[in-house]
Structures are given as C-alpha cells and as structure tokens.
Design brief:
Layout: E1 19-24, H1 29-37, E2 43-49, H2 53-67, E3 76-77, H3 80-84, E4 91-94, H4 101-110, E5 114-117, H5 125-137, E6 142-144, H6 152-162, E7 169-174, H7 196-200, H8 210-213, E8 215-216, E9 219-220, H9 231-234, H10 236-247, E10 256-258, E11 287-290, E12 296-299, E13 305-309, E14 312-317, E15 320-324, H11 346-356, H12 364-383, E16 387-390, E17 395-396, H13 400-403
Parallel strand pairs: 1-2, 1-4, 2-3, 4-5, 5-6, 7-12
Antiparallel strand pairs: 7-13, 8-9, 10-11, 10-16, 11-12, 13-14, 14-15, 16-17
Helix pairs in contact: 4-5, 5-12, 6-10, 10-12
C-alpha cells in the first residue's frame, strides 16, 4: 500500500526518501546526535562507528530499539573506512575528537558522502582549508555543527547589527575559555574495549592515559594540544562564529591578533555560564583581535557576546538577548532591509541542503573561517606576541615561526590527501 505523504505521522518523509545516515564518533556529542536523530522522520541511521567498543555497542542498542529491529541489526564498526565503503550510506555525521575531523571529512567527501562535522571544524587552519577544498572538489554538502546559527536570538542580533541599527560597531566583547596545553601524563594499561592506536590516529604517539580519551574539558582530550585547541576552539567555534556573522566576515577574518603580554594587576571575576566564563587566573584574558575596518574584538570575560555600537549595544547568549535601545529586541524588519539566511533547526537545515544541493547555514567555508579565528588566538597566546594576519592568503605576515603553526605533523599512515 502506498500512502500519500500528508498521511504520514508528524509530517515526515516516506522511508524511501529519508537520508541514509551513519554516525562516526559516539561519545558525548555523537551519542546525543544518535538519541535525537533516531526520532527524526528526515533520516534513518544505518550504521554507527567508534573505536570505543562500549560506546559502539550502546549506540547500536539505541538504534535497534528505536527502530524496533532485532538486537545487532544496525551495523557497528571500529573503522570509519568500512562505513564510507557502504553504498547504503548517503551522509555521515562526524563527532570524533577534533584531531580526526579533517581526515574523516575529506575521506567522506571523496567517497561521495555529504557531511555534518561537529565543531570546531579543524585542529589547524591548514586542515580547515583542505576540508573546504575537498567539499568543493567533490560537490559535497558539509555542515559545521555551530548550531547557534540556527537560533533566533543570534540571528536577530546579527541582523540588527548588519542593518546598522546600533550604528557603527566600535568593539565586541566575548568569552570562550582558555587554550589547550601540553601535558605529560603517566602511562596506564590500555583497556581492551578501546582501539587506542586508532584513537590517536594522526596525533603523535603517546602512552595511554584515561585523561586523553575523556570528554570533559577539565579531565579530557579537549584540554590537550595534540587533540584540541581547548575551550578557545570548543566554545570559540560558537561565539566567534557569531562575531564573524555579525561583522559580515564569513569569508575573511581579523588582520591582527594581540595577546595579553602584560597581565593586569586587578581585574573583575566574571560569572560563568555554560562553562565559558573566564577564571581570574586565565592567561588568555585580554586577548584582542583587530579587523580591517577598525573593529576590535576583546576576550575579556563577557558572558556570551556584547556588541558595542555608536548608537546602542546588543548582548546575546543562548536563550538571552538584551538590546539598547530596548525596542530593538522585538524589532520588525522592513522588506527593504537585509535579512540573513534563516534556520530554526540545524539538523533540518543540513537535511534540506542535502536534498536541494544548496549550501547550508554553517557551510564548511564558514566553519573554517570561524575556527580560524580560534586558532589564530591560540597561536598568538602560545607564541606570546602580536601577529599580523592576511585573511586572503591565510598566512602570517613576516613571521615564519607563526606560519609553522598553521599545520601539524601527522603520524605515518594518517596523512591528509595531497592537493
């Protein structure tokens, strides 16, 4: 029996039109995606993949139960290459640690799969550019998981700014957290449920320690430089992304990055919201970015993002929007005013783009440029000196030492494709 689409529950698609989806990386964010997407009428999860057998088995059970199928029906893999070989996979969602994002995303594009890659898009600026090239070369849809672009309060704030409703932007204030660091961790026995060598992948070899594979920033890979840029990239991929959107810099970026070379003797202790507020001892407090138009973006402990204009201010965070003048909060735009691309659901925006072949709201180039802002801040902090940046050439000017930080060496067998 063939049913009209209008008769399907929840307004969903018939099974034949749902996107066949595989999820690679099943801990924390990956597990959250599984729990959400098994309820979606837009897709069907047809495979899961993780080097952690426990996470893999748990996700397989969630999928099988949700679809009412026998235990073990959903294929579960240790190697992502086996997922990409499958002809029944249309698209992949990549939620592995940051140091794996580039290799899996590029391989998926080469295999003809569309991609949703969690933020931050890359571990380095060179990786982000390589991911963008692969997406364009293979005509793939790549959405970055910067879901704040699909939230009304952020879009409304950016539209107010882009239409000049608080005048000329003078400065932007934001907090995203500290950079990652190097640490020497004591060796521990490798558990039998983990393919640890594959977890390391392109990163330098290091002995197993449970801290490396943890997902919590304070006790996990996000604070370690080999695998992540720290909270600078973790939360920066969200908040700096909104700064870029508001300033109309989706294909560009700052031209100068100035670290806090002289620490202030006293400074306020900001509140912490969602773990993004700065602590009073954070070394990145006071980091500054300057854009070619003169706008200065300051990392100074502000909760969320505060835009200061010549005729008003806007403060925005998740579920929060404050405007000065106050009436701008509910401002109704006129037909002749500029409006930004609208999305109310980040997954749905990606699914729509996969079907239409139009670029999603957080296209790979956007994700790359926003992640680049984070990487630039980290490099300035690690080198502890001001840097001048050419956003068109994606090179530091007159600083070869800084330019060596644009890429990382990779272990043999985990190199990025040439070109």
């Amino acid at each position: 029996m063939v049913l009209p689409r209008r008769l399907l529950a929840g307004g969903g698609l018939p099974p034949s039109e749902r996107i066949q989806l595989a999820i690679i990386g099943l801990k924390k964010m990956g597990g959250a995606h599984v729990s959400t997407l098994v309820r979606s009428q837009q897709c069907r999860i047809v495979a899961v993949c993780d080097v952690d057998r426990n996470a893999r088995d748990a996700a397989q059970k969630v999928v099988d139960r949700a679809y009412g199928q026998a235990a073990g029906t959903c294929p579960a893999f240790n190697e992502y290459e086996r997922v990409l070989e499958r002809r029944d996979v249309d698209a992949v969602l990549v939620a592995v640690p940051d140091h794996w994002h580039a290799l899996i995303t590029i391989a998926a594009c080469e295999a003809g799969k569309d991609v949703y890659c969690e933020k931050p898009l890359s571990l380095t600026i060179a990786e982000g550019r390589a991911m963008t090239r692969a997406a364009r070369r293979h005509a793939r849809i790549v959405q970055t998981g910067t879901q704040q672009r699909s939230s009304r309060e952020f879009r409304h704030a950016c539209e107010l700014i882009r239409n000049g409703l608080i005048g000329e932007i003078k400065s932007v204030h934001v907090e995203v957290g500290p950079p990652s660091q190097d640490e020497c961790l004591a060796p521990q026995p490798t558990p039998d449920w983990l393919d640890y060598d594959r977890w390391l992948g392109p990163a330098p070899w290091a002995p197993y320690n449970e801290t490396r594979i943890g997902s919590n920033f304070f006790n996990g890979w996000r604070r370690l430089r080999d695998y992540s840029g720290g909270k600078m990239t973790d939360w920066g991929a969200h908040h700096f992304d909104i700064v870029q959107w508001a300033l109309g810099m989706d294909e560009s970026g700052p031209v100068e990055i100035i670290p806090p070379l002289a620490r202030p003797q006293t400074r306020p202790v900001p509140k912490i919201i969602d773990g993004t507020g700065a602590s009073p001892d954070e070394p990145s407090w006071g980091l500054r970015y300057r854009y070619a138009g003169g706008v200065e973006v300051v990392k100074d402990g502000t909760n969320g993002i505060r835009f200061v204009g010549s005729e008003g201010e806007i403060e925005v965070n998740r579920g929060f929007l404050r405007t000065t003048p106050e009436h701008l909060k509910n401002y109704r735009f006129r037909p002749n005013q500029m409006r930004l691309a609208a999305s109310d659901n980040h997954h749905q925006n990606w699914f729509d783009s996969v079907r239409s072949r139009r670029r999603p709201i957080s296209d790979v180039e956007i994700g790359h440029r926003s992640a680049s802002v984070c990487h630039l801040g980290n490099i300035a902090l690690w080198l502890n000196r001001p840097l001048r940046w050419d956003p068109a050439a994606e090179q530091f000017m007159g600083d070869e030492t800084a330019n060596r930080w644009l890429a990382r060496s990779r272990r043999a067998g985990f190199e990025l494709p040439a070109g």
